[in-house]
Amino acid sequence: MVFKLLRKHMKTILVTGGSGFIGSHTCLCLLKNKYKIIVVDSNVNSSKLSLKMIKKIFDQNKEVMEEIIFHQGDIRDEKFLKKVFLKSLNNGYQIDGVIHFAGLKSVEESIKYPLMYWDNNVSGTLTLIKVMELFNCETIVFSSSATVYGSSEISPLKESFEIKPLNPYGQTKATIEYILDGIFRSSKSNLKVANLRYFNPIGAHCSGLMGEEPLNKPNNLFPYICLVAAGKYKKLNIYGNDWPTFDGTGVRDYIHVMDLAEAHFSTLKFLLSNKAQLINLNIGTGIGTSVLDLINKFSVVNDIIIPFEIVDRRPGDVASLVANNQKAISILDWKPQRDLNNMCADGWNWQKRNPNGY
Ligand code: NAD
Ligand code: UFG
Predict the structure, then answer these.
(1) 154 phi and psi, to 5 degrees?
(2) Is the beta carbon of 299 within 6 A of some atom in ligand 2?
(3) Which end of the chain is more exposed for a tag (fewer CB within 10 A), N or C?
(4) Cα(344)–Cα(228) distance, integer angstroms
(5) Average pLDDT, the chain
(6) Can you give the C-alpha Rg of the chain in angstroms?
């Protein structure tokens, strides 16, 4: 009886793209905080096994976990999404909010195949918002990106800075923010929206059971460093040492994936307990790290040398992206807890224990 009562009051969250890197770590965090979750993922860039690892982590800690409801499918498929919402309703759970991770994320690929990015990211989001409206679901946390700022001369970046994406990937993220803003401003809207502009998530859960598993050759720096460390690639290519930064290599704001996951939990808690609003929040640490810094830190923390070569700049790259994270820290009950040492140690621990991914 008591159990039933508790279940009724538990919030139910739909997590699109929940099998992916950030999504799976966020699911773990939501479950730890007693949310009920439904995951929708096409697995175009992830393994279903990521969610199975969450259960393993709960078991290891002798904790009981609420079951994850998983639906494999594409968010562009309206019929499929309607079924997901309806099924949940029929089972007695209205979906209270959505965390929307599902999307394609490679800058380079988006330059080669822009239409694929517009279709997947923007059409997918439009379909999702339409279905949310149909089922009176009014809370959405959207995975935006620091890429929306383009290349700013001024660092760290504030949320109020101009949005000027330089590549199709960033343009899809900016467009989705724009669409959400337009709907929010309409007179009938009760939407609660948080656009979380992530900086560069790296690392893995400290258990070594969950982490990032790029299905193809990785585009991002950290997974590539891990694969060089594991001996899968001979060397790392550094995309330019002539950027206007302190050592000439690209500077980014790396954030531990568990800190990012916790930011989602705090954002949901904030939105669900406040009035209709739209907020843009930078989720980063506020610390700039160059490519050379990251290689050095990884080498020292894990005692592995990472061979590298300087090559040409990569199309679509910018010199520096570092967050001013004060707004997130002041609004959310959140701040980053883990440093670059933790990111390098946890990321390598995951890679070492899972040389072939999940
Ligand atoms: P990821 O590729 O690991 O996860 C995205 C998930 O979405 C994958 O599981 C994929 O299978 C799924 N997906 C993609 N398109 C789909 C569709 N149409 N229908 C259903 N599922 C679909 O990526 P991630 O690193 O976990 O990123 C999550 C989100 O955060 C993405 O939207 C990404 O653009 C954004 N983001 C990521 C970073 C980063 O550096 N990782 C930085 C800023 C923003
Ligand atoms: N880099 C290299 N060699 C590599 C890979 C990357 O030198 O093999 C450099 C890049 O030139 C850049 C830095 O390492 O200076 C970081 O590059 P990543 O590819 O790891 O990350 P990006 O900042 O380019 O992009 C990532 C995600 C985007 C997201 C963005 C937010 O891929 O989805 O962070 O800041 F939007």
Answers:
(1) -100, 130
(2) no
(3) N
(4) 14
(5) 94
(6) 20
Query: What is the pTM assigned to this prediction?
Result: 0.96
**If you average pLDDT over residues 138-159, what whole number do you get?**
92
Report the alpha-carbon distance of residue 194 to residue 174 in Å, rounded: 13
CA pair distance 40, 127, nearest whole angstrom = 13
Measured from the Cβ of residue 303, the count of other Cβ atoms closer than 10 Å reads: 8
Report d(CA 333, CA 283) in Å as an integer.
13
CB 124 within 8 A of CB 75: yes
What proportion of the chain, given as a percentage, has pLDDT over 70? 97
- End-to-end, the C-alpha distance of the chain in Å comes to 39
Q: Please tell me which residue, 108 or 124, carries the higher pLDDT value.
A: 124
Residue numbers annotated as active site? 169
Q: How far apart are CA 274 and CA 268, in angstroms?
A: 10
Length of the chain: 358
Query: What tokens appear for 329 in the block?
Result: 């820290």
**Residue with tokens 């690892």, as numbered in its chain:** 53
Out of 122-131, 209-218, 347-356, least confident range: 209-218
**Strand partners for 72:** 41
Ligand 2 within 6 A of 207 CB?
Answer: no
Name every residue whose Cβ is closer than 8 Å to that of residue 223 and which is 6 or more positions away in sequence.
212, 214
Half-sphere exposure (CA, 13 Å, Cβ side) for 106?
Answer: 17
Q: How far apart are CA 209 and CA 213, in angstroms?
A: 12
Residue given tokens 């894990």 in the structure block: 302
Assign 106 to helix, strand or coil. coil
DSSP-derived 3-state class of residue 200? strand
> In testing the pocket of ligand 1, which one of 38, 40, 43, 45 has its CB within 8 Å of the most ligand atoms?
45
- Closest approach atom of ligand 1 to CA 74: 19
Q: Is the pLDDT of residue 184 over 70?
A: yes
Q: CA 258 → CA 24, 30, 278, 291, distances in Å?
A: 10, 11, 24, 21
